[in-house]
Structure formats: structure tokens, C-alpha cells
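Section 4.2 – Deliverable D4.2 (structural model, holo form)

The reporting period included a commitment to supply a predicted holo structure for the target in complex with adenosine-5'-diphosphate. Inputs used:
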Amino acid sequence: MSKKPVLLSGIKPTGDLHIGNYFGAMRQQVELFKSGKYQCFIMVADYHALNTMQNAEEMHRRTKELVMAYIAIGLDPKDVVLFKQSDVPEHTELAWIFDTITTMPYLMRAHAYKDAVAKNKEINVGTFNYPMLMAADILIYDTSIVPVGADQKQHIEIARDTAQKFNHIFKNDLFTLPKPYIMPDVATVPGIDGKKMSKSYGNVIPLFSSREELTKRVMSIVTDSSGERPENVYKIHKLVRSEQELDSIYSEHKGKYKELKDILADDLNNYLEPMRGRYNKIESEHEIINDILKSGAEKARAVTKEKIRLVKQAIGVL
Ligand code: ADP
Ligand code: TRP
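Output (C-alpha cells):
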């Protein structure tokens, strides 16, 4: 194994991907992986997803879609260990060990738990323990940095606390303390109604739709005729063209919203087409996905089996 610091991140396979996900998070992630500075692990957090998504067909489909999406946008499974959480049982094994050294009042301070309680939700035990499984995901690889959105910061802090607690109780320095890498907050991508693009608002432009579907979505972007230019169209356009180019296009076609939308549909389509091509190609050879995940799990387990052995020695069961 190389000596580079370890970078690990996890993604739950729970939603249809849209251009907001891509320009807001995935693109920066791939750039970070490609920097060559880290030994990278990317995990499909299927056991975490199981807390909310309890449907076998959906689990299979979304897991596959997520892996295809990452490959289509440029992640090379030869350079990055791409695997499924459920394929590496040492994660859940370590999570149990962490459960035994963690108190309920400590986990009750987690934001996700407090939010759920505030909404009067009867949360499941998996959701309550979520931070322990995530700590295991991270710590088992001696991870140095964890690129995530700001909402995940507390989970990384919990992983650090857990590493320290374990090292202290069992008098060793088995676990490395990970640091969050909070992804720079790129401007929020608006949806076709001008609000934040989100799968829960039904206002998305999908990342991998056909040209026709893409054009249809662009044509339904809500425009407001009061200003100088259709702001919702412009903001999306800015993701794929420089402001300088746009300024001349928008002044040339002032007031001609249909034409501006036609240009945006073409530009977006040209930008997304190569990724869509790769996505469709992988989809047609979908057994590749299984091979990628299988090989990812093998590489991951080469690390986790050894680490869990050391952990078991430290706690006295081996
Ligand atoms: P959604 O809001 O559609 O449910 P998620 O919460 O699953 O999306 O977001 C996954 C990632 O995509 C997050 O890291 C988030 O920062 C990013 N993201 C989602 N929507 C947008 C958006 N409209 N603009 C910028 N980034 C976004
Ligand atoms: N909790 C993360 C999210 O909702 C997903 C996740 C699971 C994760 N395990 C991880 C992220 C380990 C980073 C590291 O986005």
C-alpha cells in the first residue's frame, strides 16, 4: 500500500442525481480524487441508507446508479477503491465495539438525532447509532481526511472523539484522528422554479437524462419578465459558460427568452453529453459494476481484516 494519506468519503444511494448534486458537490470530489495526493476510498453507504430506504429493488438500482454516475463523471476505479459498505463486514463489527464504549447521552447530542426528536419522529436504533457506524467507516482505514458537506461535520467530530476514547481506554494509539475537509460551498444551483434545486422539490434538471428530456426541463424554467435578463436561465447557464461569453449572448438576445433557453439547452447538453455517453455505455455492460464493487471490496478488506485483528487484540478477544 502507498504511503499517501488516506481520503475516505461515503455517499448514501438514496436519490436521483441532478445537476445541483453535480455542480454543488460531485465535481469537486472528483477533482480532489484526481489530485493524486491521497489514497482514496469511496464507499456506497448502503447500510446507512437502510435506515430510511427499505426496499430491495430500490437499493439495488440506486447503488448501481451511484457507481455508474461516479465512473461517468470521471472517477477511475483503478485509482480509487470504490466499494459497498455491506461488502466489508468489519465496518459493522467495529461499530459494535464502538457502541460499547459510547454512552447514550453522548449520542443524544447528535444533531441528526435531536432534529428527529424535535420532529417527534420515532427513530430506529440504526439512526440513533448512525454516527458509530460512520466512525467505524472512517477509522478502520486510518483515514486522514474526509471530504463532506458542512452538515456532516459533527459526524467527523464524533469519529475523532471515538478514536481518542478507544485509544485512551485500551492504552494504545491504534486509531488515527481524522479531519473533515468541508467542501467549498459553491453557489446553490437553482431549480427550474428558481428555488434551490432539490429532489424533494420536484424542480430538478436530471444529470443523466436524454437530450429531449433535458430540453423540456430547460424550456420549463420559470422566467420573470421584469428584469434585464431571465435570472433563473442565466444562473444555470453560468455553470457551463463564462460570464464574459454570457454577457454578450444575453445582450444580443435581450428579451428573447425562448432563444436564450434554446442556447442554454444546447450548452448544457454539450457539457453533459460525454458523461451521459459514458453512463449509457457502462449501463449496457452492467456486469462491470459488479466486478468493480467486488474488486473494491477485496482491496478494502485487505486493510480492514488486518485492522480488526489489531483491534481484537487490543480489546482482549484475540
Ligand atoms: P437533494 O437536495 O436533492 O436531496 P442531497 O441532499 O442528496 O440533494 O445532496 C447531495 C449533495 O449535493 C450535497 O453535498 C449538496 O451539497 C449537493 N447539492 C444538492 N443540491 C444542490 C444545489 N441545488 N446546489 C448546490 N449543491 C447541491
Ligand atoms: N453520513 C454521510 C452522508 O449522509 C454518508 C457517510 C456514511 C459517510 N459513512 C461515511 C461520509 C463515511 C463520509 C465518511 O452524507
